[in-house]
Amino acid sequence: MRAYKRLRVRLKKTDRDKLDDVLSGGLQPVRTVLRALALSHLHDEKPVSEVAAIVRLTPKAVREIGRRYLDYGLEQALYDKARPGAAPVLEDRQRRHIIAMVCSDPPEGCARWTIRLVAEEAVKRRLVPRIGRESIRLLLLHDDLKPWREKNVVRPRTLTEDYIAKMEDVLETYERPYSPQEPVLCLDEKPITSHADVRPASPAEPGREARHDSEYKRCGTANVFCAVEPQAGRHYTFPTPNRSGFEFALVIADLALQYPKAETIHLVMDNLNIHRRKSLATAFGAEIGGEIWNRFTVHYTPTHGSWLNQAEIEIGMFSRQCLGAKRIPDLKTLRRQARAWNHRTNRAGTKINWQFDRRAARRKFHYKKHSFKRSKNLVSGIRGLRPSPVTFKLLYCFFVIDHQRRRIVHFNVTAHPTAEWLCQQLREAFPNDGRYKYAILDRDSKFSSEVLALLKSSAIDPVRTSIRSPWQNGVAE
């Protein structure tokens, strides 16, 4: 047996303080802590074999720790030298080429990039001679690339002045404090495909889940109008056989009956072609349809901006909680399921906590508060009033209404509405500030060529309604 010279280790005071710091606090590697304990016991003049038994290291390892301290100092005794590691698998040029390939479109026949596809294409395009999937994974992780993901965003080209103005109008409506006199409703539609089981399903049993056959029978389509009052937690679902203007008119009439005491009902919806006054006029007639439509103050979401409609959230709730993966064979079953879900949700009073406001929109889309034109549409009209109780003469009222904001811009009354008087009213109604783009006028003879020329000189395009179609100027009516 080989005899070793007794190892004598005496620690300096500064080294003892450093050892105390290593052993007393902070997270340290296990090997560093064991080496510090070995040096501490060697300083107490304990034999190598006893120190090895205490720290559970071999005597050879303890002796090597002591010699490294005596020859090179405390740092060399506690810590290992930095290891060079393996050579990098990819050169910088190869990394750049692979990243550029991943940021481009995938090959034809492939919907998206995958780690396996990236590795195969890198070799196929001779970017690298060979490479494994783990190297590709680490490369993508290092550069924070996830080529298999795609995010749906609002493209900058859609952020026109009209888009921002409508977005601000919808968000301002959402920011209104809750008022039963002016409730805020959101409306949207969801198409439904009806399916029926070909073979009966088996219910769940202890130790076995429910089962249904993969084969099904298609039973046509249906539609569900989903409306929600987010601040009050009131939910409405209207299953219909189709998404026609007539069905939309029935839904609007039903919603109007739900709020008999409201002064106006703010309705947020998208720009679908049936979301117009014409649908109600066709279903109920121009007079009754106009009365129902006038109960609402409509706020249209911008084009490609249906995400601003909280009814999209309502549709998501209805799809997950009511429809799920179940098969609904007919409209009768759909109405029964929707009625039960509607009753349960209204009883719970589930509200939508909308957080995206105008300030967040300006911060997100990088525009300032007054950097857009608020309104571009204008409605004007001239109507006869009742005879005056003083003069017993017929008076005429000229008015200009902001179509988007539903606000009166200007009005005046006269007994003789001449073209000169109308031109003067138009000059007073709006100066040349470029706020308005269109003026909707009917075919009244008082809107002469002089009036139209004055509008055009103010950069306002006059739009005339069709002959005998006053309903086309619905707001003025």
CATH topology of the largest domain: Nucleotidyltransferase, domain 5
Level-1 CATH class name of the largest domain: Alpha Beta
Average pLDDT for all residues: 85
Poorly predicted regions: 382-391
Structural class: alpha/beta
Q: What overall form do the CA principal axes indicate?
A: elongated
Instruction: Please give the share of residues in helix.
Output: 25-40%
Q: SSE order, as H and E?
A: HHHHHHHHHEEEHEHHEHHHEEEHEHE
State which percent range the strand residues make up: 15-25%
In CATH, the architecture of the largest domain is: 2-Layer Sandwich
Number of domains: 4
Let me know the CATH homologous superfamily of the largest domain.
Ribonuclease H-like superfamily/Ribonuclease H
Rounded to the nearest angstrom, the distance between the terminal CA atoms is 115 Å
By DSSP, the count of extended strands is 10
Largest sheet: 5 strands, mixed
User: What is the radius of gyration computed over CA atoms, rounded to a whole number of angstroms?
Assistant: 38 Å
How many helices in DSSP terms?
A: 17
Name the strands of the widest sheet in spatial order: 3-2-1-4-5
